[in-house]
Amino acid sequence: MKNRIPRIYIDKNLKINEKIILNSSNTHYIIKVLRMNTQNKLEIFNDTNYIFLSKIIEIKKKIVTILILEQEKKNIESPLLIHLGLVISKNKKMNFAIQKSIELGVHTITPIFSQYCNFNKNKKNILKKNVDWKNIIIAACQQCRRNIIPKINHIENINTWCEISNKNETKIILDPKSIININQLPKNINYIRLLVGCEGGFSLSEVQKAIKHEFIPVKLGPRILRTETAAIAAVTALQIRFGDL
Q1: Cβ atoms within 10 A of the Cβ of 131, count?
Q2: Cα gap 21→52, rounded to integer Å
Q3: Model confidence over 139-188: pLDDT tens digits?
Q4: Dist CA 211 CA 218 (whole Å)
Q5: CA–CA dist 22, 25 (Å, integer)
Q6: Would you say 182 and 237 are in contact if contact means Cβ atoms under 8 Å apart?
Q7: Rounded (10°) angle between helices 123-144 and 91-103
């Protein structure tokens, strides 16, 4: 059985025969986690529809140098563009929902403030969270072999996010009180704006405002799901019906 070549993300344009010194994060991963040696192969992705086969040509103290050998076009992005509005939940739940949503093919994520979310809104904490979430997304892409890095937007208020309208976009809010399920949505959907609540769900006024802005309330079966389960279940169901699962 062919060994799986490890993948790393490099945030730069790449070309064949280029030598690259890896940053500290990738160097630590190569040396301490994977324990790789010179001549070992790596697969590089860089937010394009290309992957780059490379090899380690030098490991010197805390410096790793690689050589780009060849490139291959590889597009595995879903034809269904899902913009996930994810109300901020507790750390582990939020991180898990982001990670699994990326693995399932979500195109864009916007973290959302809502009435019932419990989040420290000071600027320092917000900036730190955005960095943490971006790193989770990159790590998820590294694992699931996506080559395009999905975008994570700055945190927005729920009402502001609901007011935004893009052409040909179907807007959905998860609501356990709804009588509509995903199988009852119109056919031939390509763009979805999906709003998922936190542990406390949405207030009545938030649901009403979302409906006013043309969001369709949708339920995920008869059981009440945890917030991280709801995000994963909704994205999975949408990908099965309209995407590439």
Answers
A1: 10
A2: 15
A3: 999 999 999 999 999 999 999 999 987 888 999 999 999 999 999 998 88
A4: 11
A5: 8
A6: yes
A7: 40
- How does pLDDT run across 66-85, given as a tens digit for each residue? 999 999 999 999 999 999 99
Q: What is the pLDDT of residue 124?
A: 79
SS (H, E, C) 21-37: ECCHHHHHHHHHHCCCC
Phi, psi of 74 (to 5 degrees): -155, 105
Q: What is the pLDDT of residue 164?
A: 87
The pTM assigned to this predicted structure is 0.91
- b/e code 13-42 from CB counts within 10 Å (16+ = b): ebeeeeebebeeebbebbbeeeebeeebeb
Q: Walk me through the domains of the chain, giving residue ranges and CATH numbers.
A: 7-73 (2.40.240.20), 81-242 (3.40.1280.10)
| Residues paired with residue 8 on neighbouring β-strands, in sequence order | 44
DSSP annotation string for the chain: -PPPPPEEE--S---TT-EEEPPHHHHHIIIIIS---TT-EEEEE-SSSEEEEEEEEEEETTEEEEEEEEEEE-----SSEEEEEEE---HHHHHHHHHHHHHTT--EEEEEE-TT------HHHHHHHHHHHHHHHHHHHHHHT--S--EEPPPEEHHHHHH---TTEEEEEE-TT-S--GGGSPSS--EEEEEE--TT---HHHHHHHHHTTEEEE--SSSPPPHHHHHHHHHHHHHHHHS--
- Say which residue the tokens 């410096």 belong to: 63
Q: From CA 94, how far away is CA 8, in angstroms rounded? A: 24
Q: Residue type at 208? A: Q
